[in-house]
Amino acid sequence: MRNLLAFLAKYNHWFVFILLEVASFVLLFRFNSFQGSVFFSSANAVAGKVYEYNSAVTTFFNMSNNNKRLSERNLILEQQVKTLSQYIATHNGDSLTLDQCQKQALAGFKLIPAKVISSSTDKEDNLITIDKGRADGVHEDMGVACGTGIVGVVYMVSDHYAIVIPVINVNSNVSVTIQKRGYFGFLHWKRKPSDIAYIDDVPRHAKFALGDKVVTNGYSSIFPEGIMVGKILHVFNSADGLSYRVQLRLATDFGNLRHVCVIDNSALKDKALLLKAAQDSLRPRNDNK
After folding, report:
1. Does residue 268 fall inside a structural domain?
2. Shortest CA distance to 220 belongs to which of 187, 244, 245?
3. What is the pLDDT of residue 38?
4. What pTM did the predictor assign?
5. The total number of structural domains that make up the chain
6. How far apart are CA 100 and CA 80, in angstroms?
7. What is the pLDDT, as a whole number, of residue 80?
8. Would you give the DSSP letter of residue 169?
9. Residue 115 CB: number of other CB atoms within 10 A?
10. What is d(CA 44, CA 284) in angstroms, rounded to the nearest whole number?
11. Taking residues 222-234, what's their average pLDDT?
12. Strand 111-119 to 143-145 pairing
């Protein structure tokens, strides 16, 4: 306290000067309209710049959340476009019917937006790490997709992170179908490049064309039906000449993958369990008496 009083006593003339300056400025700007208007105009300009910079900073830090929402919305829109295209091609319905068709296609599926925090495209066993885990509702064997198409399947999960096996992994095995043709098979990746994959053992009698779309067929408990996989790029004969080997260009750009959505497959698992129970009930029983 003694040092504070000594400091105030030593520099009291400066405090008196500052006090008088403040009082003079208040009197100047308050009782002189011209000076007052100049002061308030300058203050508003400075405040406007501060608010502008603050808005820019806030927008920058909110970009991650906005991108997550956009990724989820893109996936929903892809499904809606697919459903509408199929419906319009075969029906002439009103807007209410179309709206109901959209809801039916997405009913029962919860989408969990996630950010890719690490990935690889140049290995045989490529893996993707995302920033969502068990605490966010992510579990093993959930499908992962982005706005343009299929990504992969959740392989391992911790509380806040998950490892995804993408379709560009030699161990990936996803059931797919040629859209509108009805022929299905399993998608395989043969190492490089990262945008090319194959469907093996397509029957010789199958009819399809280059550019036809390949989508998930919904037969598994991982992916719903109709998620985009890629387009037919080329057709080869199999080694034994009894079937075709179809080459695809994948719809997902794995080299530029930043945001994805994990698909809650609870409804698909219930469907698979019901089908298995029905098949088991139809099997002949051997009763030993």
Report:
1. yes
2. 187
3. 56
4. 0.61
5. 1
6. 11
7. 73
8. B
9. 16
10. 85
11. 88
12. unpaired
CATH number at residue 221: 2.40.10.340
Q: What is the largest CA-CA distance in the chain?
A: 114
The C-alpha angle 72, 78, 81, rounded to 5 degrees, equals: 140
* 52 in a structural domain: no
User: What is the extent of the structural domain holding 217?
Assistant: 108-276
Q: Are residues 265 and 137 in contact, defined by beta-carbon separation less than 8 angstroms?
A: no
Yes or no: say if 248 and 231 are a contact pair by the CB < 8 Å rule: yes
Measured CA to CA, the distance from residue 42 to residue 56 in angstroms comes to 21
Answer yes or no: is 254 within a domain. Answer: yes
DSSP 140: T
Supply the pLDDT for residue 28: 66
Beta strands in 29-173, from DSSP E residues, in sequence order: 111-119, 128-130, 143-145, 150-157, 162-166
Q: Residue 169: beta bridge partners?
A: 125
Residue recorded with tokens 């750009």: 253
Degrees to nearest 5, angle at CA 35 with 31 and 38: 135
Number of H helices, E strands in the chain: 5, 12
Which residue from 254, 251, 252, 259 is spatially nearest to 117, judged by alpha carbons?
259
Within-domain flag for 21: no
Phi/psi of residue 163, each to 5°?
-105, 130
